[in-house]
Amino acid sequence: MRRANPVLLVTSFDEDDADKALDIKIDEFIKKPIDPDIVTAKVQAILAQNS
């Protein structure tokens, strides 16, 4: 079952913490520092999956 609102986590986590975030059903994560093109691509992918 999908949530009504997808979750995109922007964090300074390392890769081990990122795996934990995905385990708790975070849809996607972006590690700081962020690249606006990456944010745009991830948001578009999440929206495509949830439409």
From TrEMBL:
PROSITE patterns: RESPONSE_REGULATORY (PS50110). SUPFAM superfamilies: CheY-like. Residues 1-47 form the Response regulatory domain. Signal peptide: none annotated. It comes from the Bacteria. InterPro entries: CheY-like_superfamily, Sig_transdc_resp-reg_receiver. This is Response regulator transcription factor.
